[in-house]
Specification:
Helix 4 (57-80) runs antiparallel to helix 5, helix 6 packs across helix 14 and helix 11 (258-283) crosses helix 13 (314-340). The radius of gyration is 20 Å and the shape is globular. The protein has helices at 15-34, 40-46, 52-55, 57-80, 83-100, 106-134, 137-168, 172-192, 207-218, 221-251, 258-283, 285-307, 314-340, 347-371, 378-398, and strands at residues 2-3, 13-14. 78% of the residues lie in helices and 1% in strands. It has 411 residues and is mostly helical. It has one domain: Growth Hormone, Chain: A (Up-down Bundle), CATH 1.20.1250.20. A two-stranded antiparallel sheet has the order 1-2. The model is unreliable at 4-9 (pLDDT under 50).
């Protein structure tokens, strides 16, 4: 497969090149969060914030900005194509990262992180729209799995990069690195990415057209319910990210080993995403994701019950959390593909509505889980169990009570 282009000056992309570029775009968001985790304590100390839970707002502000702006970038990309809005978002993202280097206060940092999230929203929405422009059905799930696999490599590397930066420089340099990465991705998009939305498939950028597209998205039971289910499951991931430094460094005293253990968890999700890309065409999205969601709930239940008896040994925490997050790697790409499948004719707007739901919902749930941290892993474990049960309810509604049954041979 090659991604052709209407612009004769641009070369076509092979499938591996396409997957790699989509993964780099998605990685923007992972880098924005994970690379700074080792520096949260110094950021708080530098800007006069002593409370550990308050420092978590550096992550929450970014996620809220990204979630809100997705409602704007989707319709914009349906009207003007994918490439121009994508480059605009990358520009805002990079400039905000550079401005943070000179920020004098924690409040100013939060404002710039919110604005940076607004720019990053373009990468979240438009990347999924581009994949949907090119693929459908199980092929979309396969490509999304490969994108997620490469995307998950970032949390393996990013905290270690952040830790390395903190050894040789102060926390401001983290945002310089973020800015440079965004500039690199923008250059590759400019030089290599073709426009995937043809002129005849573009929608007018009017209030009536946007509301019509939103109505199409919100009236699709399957799309809406899978998006809501994904929102709760992603909330568990954000909850862990918010409290990861407090758990792994505060409770388990890992110190400089924190990035290595964090990388191990991300590796499990990457392996699961790769396994999904190999298995999805054979078994289908529903069989894999429904089984994984049940496995996620069971692992979370055992973890929550075990945590009630005192501080878990590190090895048991790693096993139980790792088991849950391996299932996460099978849930995420399939739920997103099933939510987008019926909506290819309004892919940009669909991606924005679904992305808004997942990001704002996930960020809010993750913030609630993170703020519940009480010096133990019990709030996190109970949070995981709660979101898995709620996710199962939405899947039952989407499937009218029937799990594991493909709607057609391509799904």
């Amino acid at each position: 497969m090659t991604v052709t282009t209407e612009a004769p000056g641009l070369p076509a992309l092979s499938k591996p090149q396409f997957v790699a570029l989509m993964a780099m775009l998605m990685a923007i968001n992972a880098i924005s969060i994970d690379i700074m985790l080792p520096g949260l304590q110094e950021i708080g100390a530098s800007l006069g914030v002593a409370d550990e839970n308050t420092r978590q707002y550096v992550i929450t502000a970014y996620l809220l900005g990204m979630g809100c702006a997705q409602l704007f970038f989707g319709p914009l990309s349906d009207r003007f194509g994918r490439k121009l809005p994508l480059l605009g978002g990358l520009g805002v993202y990079a400039l905000c990262a550079l401005a943070i280097v000179f920020v004098p206060s924690f409040a100013g940092l939060l404002v710039l992180r919110f604005m940076q999230g607004i720019g990053a929203a373009a990468t979240r929405v438009i990347t999924i729209s581009i994949v949907r422009d090119v693929y459908g059905g199980r092929m979309m799930a396969e490509v999304m799995s490969l994108v997620m696999m490469v995307f998950m490599i970032v949390p393996v590397i990013a905290p270690s990069v952040g830790q390395l930066i903190m050894i040789f420089a102060e926390w401001h340099m983290i945002f310089v690195v973020i800015c440079l990465f965004a500039a690199l991705v923008a250059t590759l998009v400019t030089l290599r990415l073709p426009e995937t939305l043809s002129i005849e498939h573009r929608r007018p950028f009017t209030v009536a057209s946007i509301l019509d597209a939103f109505g199409i998205v919100l009236s699709s039971r399957v799309s809406l319910c899978y998006s809501l289910a994904a929102s709760f499951i992603f909330g568990s991931l954000f909850g862990f990210i918010n409290s990861a430094q407090q758990i792994l460094v505060g409770i388990y005293q890992l110190g400089n080993w924190f990035p290595l253990v964090f990388a191990g968890f991300a590796s499990m999700m990457a392996v699961a995403s790769f396994a999904n890309s190999r298995l999805v065409k054979r078994y289908g999205m529903r069989r894999l994701s429904h089984g994984a969601l049940i496995g996620f709930a069971l692992a979370s239940f055992v973890w929550a019950m075990a945590s009630l008896f005192g501080v878990l040994p590190l090895w048991l925490f790693v096993v139980l959390y790792g088991a849950a997050m391996f299932q996460f790697g099978l849930i995420g790409p399939n739920f997103n593909a099933m939510a987008m499948e019926p909506l290819g004719h309004v892919a940009g707007t669909a991606s924005s509505v679904l992305g808004f739901t997942q990001t704002i919902g996930g960020a809010t749930i993750g913030a609630l889980i993170g703020q519940a941290f009480d010096g133990t892993v019990t709030p996190l474990a109970v949070g995981f169990l709660s979101v898995s049960v709620i996710g199962l309810v939405f899947v039952f509604i989407a499937e009218k009570g029937r799990l594991f049954s493909p709607h057609n041979p391509s799904l």
